[in-house]
Amino acid sequence: GAVVSQHPSRVICKSGTSVKIECRSLDFQATTMFWYRQFPKQSLMLMATSNEGSKATYEQGVEKDKFLINHASLTLSTLTVTSAHPEDSSFYICSARRQRNYEQYFGPGTRLTVT
Amino acid sequence: SQQGEEDPQALSIQEGENATMNCSYKTSINNLQWYRQNSGRGLVHLILIRSNEREKHSGRLRVTLDTSKKSSSLLITASRAADTASYFCATGVNAGGTSYGKLTFGQGTILTVHP
């Protein structure tokens, strides 16, 4: 099966600092990766679509200067939460899509807590 | 915005019973997928049904799709305590360009199976 990893799995940071989350497809190439945010007991909200070698496409209401996305290779996308605030505390999940089918393979998620 | 609406929001049953969850959506879709999420974990893909399919089976799972009513159902037969999780439907649309393949998630159903 297709495996997607995320690192770190859990991070606690102070308000005002920046945090980088990595998403890797381990055994396949992903031309497209997606970043989601999930608040407790809620569904996943798509934040942005990340395409290798091009700028990310952000969903309405998501600040692109605050959530920096880089998709530098076919197996790695990064999400950087800049100047994090407590309201950014959430569960961030990435997914990677194979080119040949519609299935997305999800990472295990990263729990961000901003104090 | 979340396109999918799921009901019930929470479902509590005894082991051995069947569990049915429903999902409705608003726009035309290319496919509909069901995912499972254990508490605080990533998503596991369960099944994908394309817009030209009406029913699909995978083990104890049965998914139906009615595009005229813009609705889908997930049936888990002979449930087990290990099936306890949140279940989400997600719709994929024929969006072109860089957003191809992005999913819109429903609000989810929290299933609890009592042993």
Keywords:
heterodimer; A: 115 residues; mainly beta; seven-stranded mixed sheet; four-stranded antiparallel sheet; B: 115 residues; six-stranded mixed sheet; five-stranded antiparallel sheet
In one word, what is the shape of chain A? globular
Oligomer: heterodimer
Round the mean pLDDT of chain A to the nearest integer and report it.
91
Q: Provide the structure class of chain A.
A: mainly beta
Q: Can you summarize the main beta sheet of chain A?
A: 7 strands, mixed
Main sheet characteristics of chain B: 6 strands, mixed
**Regions with little confidence, pLDDT below 50 for 5+ residues of chain A:** none
Helix content of chain A: under 10%
Cα(first) to Cα(last) distance of chain B is 36 Å
User: Share of helix among residues of chain B?
Assistant: under 10%
Count every beta strand of chain A, where a strand is a DSSP E run of 2 or more residues.
11
| Discrete helix count of chain A | 0
Radius of gyration of chain B: 14 Å
What order do the SSEs of chain B take from the amino end to the carboxyl end, as H and E?
A: EEEEEEEEEEE
